């Protein structure tokens, strides 16, 4: 009970000093809980949607996907004849059945040819209006479609694009373009996670999406009274014939959709939790520093406690109880803040096109438990070392305000361990950079990053002395005595300076590493484009949509075009010379001019020969793995056609950046074995202008594709910029997540300075008494903060560039052989760290300047 009273008294006596540590715990716990609440809410939203939209039993073509997606290589959804509907209606246990036809391989535009597709990655769905849709959609204005010139649109799309009844829109598919006027608006009765839905009447939907009537993509079946979904599935399957169609219960359909979405949500959740873990790691340094300084300031008090009978365990326990209280307070507040973060993320996603309603906000009981346990455990563990040191101080040494005799020895041991870890990390990074295989190198890289990071953390106090002195010479000496005092203050406690700088080091190391890797990827890809691509323009969809025949025709008819190369990607089953059968293996079909448009380096044969009839190429790794040589025959079974026995005429390098690992054949060969109506659409096209007409053709191509806004025309400059922008957007997202760790690190600098000012109260009073002005005092503290921040920045940026350079060596195995250090970014981050130091010192410096001189001198 005495220990608890003492801990409570100390906790509330130093509540101001504990506040920043509590904020660090709060932020870290909030990010973890916010991530869990956000992803759980997304799961709830999709679960409700899938449950509401799934009929009791769904019948679909045998080759349809389990999730209901209707993407097909030829741009048309897989369908069944209308006779299937009649058969299902006669099956035992069926109350009702209706045919549905829908597709996601569509583009919908308004009268100005602006796309009406969601900008957040959600699907665009066009289908017929059915009773199953009426379960989840309510017509709020107008009427459902009653003829070929009418279309009903979901309310979210209407609001987002300011549509109104009577507006004309166009549905663009592989079959053609169909125009209709908005006849009605239907609102979701469950949360719409971001889809845009357009309803046509049944015959119009069939003709627009498939090109013929009397077909359906699926049949929705409702069970009769007392018939379970499982029994209904059995009865319907028996009526249709076993294995003829895909028959799924509502639960099976919902589970398939849930699993498909779950993969994305798992990646999102664990990525965000990873960044929260980094913030927790940074917070550990803050908590260690806080308790180390609080213990140091209470040395005499601890000595008195020991002198009157307190044991080491009691002193140790007293500090740990304070940490426990800090963890509880920070974690409880963090759980509440986490819910707020989740709501903020939902609003952010809604603005990006994925609608998430707070009505579905899901806070599982495990979320606050995880937040509390994680926050308290991390805080107590971080306080253990300071608590242990407090318990080791002898009563007489504490009463003298002396340190422990073992401090010097402990420093030597710490330095030796740090150097050993750093050396091991450097060696692991060397092995990663010299690895011949990416998988092996990645393992060494991961080990090297962990060991080198731990090594720098442990050896930080040793490095602090040298680095701070160099920074002092470069930056502080110009400020005279004030600069020298700032340098001495930073050097006074190397362990504290090292721990504070290490907190900032972690976040900046990751920033530097990712900057080096991304810059190297862009530089490598740019170099490869310059070396490999011999065409003027690349036409394709950023959303991965296939190029429909109308767009291909428009491109080929553009004035000034010398040639257009079609490029198709599909999957087939291979039987290789080693007797193996490879299911769903990729193959690329292109026009022979592709050999000129994209120059592929071969290790055997001539790539142009691969475009002869009944010929193909493979890449080097594939050839080695399956004992393929020039002249070898590979049986290729096309899913929508017959089997071809293709002769290998060329073997390409496997480490190319462009079309890495591709296997080529000609479109003429593909057409020989796949019927014309089953031929896959083009994935992209390559266009070359007549000599001297590049600029004119560039504008002409854009005009030709005005009616097809889903496709972009890019010259090589555009393509390089698009690649740079894509990587830049990903980096900005990562930097945003890393900002949490950097904010916690800044709090660490603030806390260290604030406690340092308290620790030096008497000294500050004496300096003021002998003539140091308030302005000089504040400048001294600001410069001390800048030096600590720059110390952490130097370590972090140096370490990160080492990691990035090693990672680039692994990327070189995949053809990305250019190492580029983004010096503007590195220098900008370094300068920014100085401003971080200045910002962190504002409050401590202000408080130090307001001290009463006489009271400060009288402080014991």
Automatic annotation (TrEMBL):
Subcellular compartments: Cell membrane
GO molecular function, one term: transmembrane transporter activity
Keyword annotations of the record: Cell membrane, Membrane, Transmembrane, Transmembrane helix
Cellular component GO terms, alphabetical: plasma membrane
Domain of life where this protein originates: Bacteria
Record flagged with keyword ATP-binding: no
Membrane topology (UniProt): Multi-pass membrane protein
Positions of the ABC3 transporter permease C-terminal domain: 275-395, 737-852
Protein name in the entry: ABC transporter permease
InterPro entries listed in its UniProt record: ABC3_permease_C, MacB_PCD, Macrolide_Exporter_MacB
Record domain MacB-like periplasmic core: where: 19-238
Family affiliation: Belongs to the ABC-4 integral membrane protein family.
Region (Disordered): 58-78
Species per Swiss-Prot/TrEMBL record: Streptomyces roseirectus
Taxonomic placement: Bacteria, Bacillati, Actinomycetota, Actinomycetes, Kitasatosporales
Presence of the UniProt keyword Transmembrane in the record: yes
Main localization of the protein described in the UniProt heading: membrane
Transmembrane segments: 270-296, 319-343, 363-385, 412-431, 443-476, 497-517, 733-758, 785-805, 825-846
UniProt-listed Pfam families: FtsX, MacB_PCD
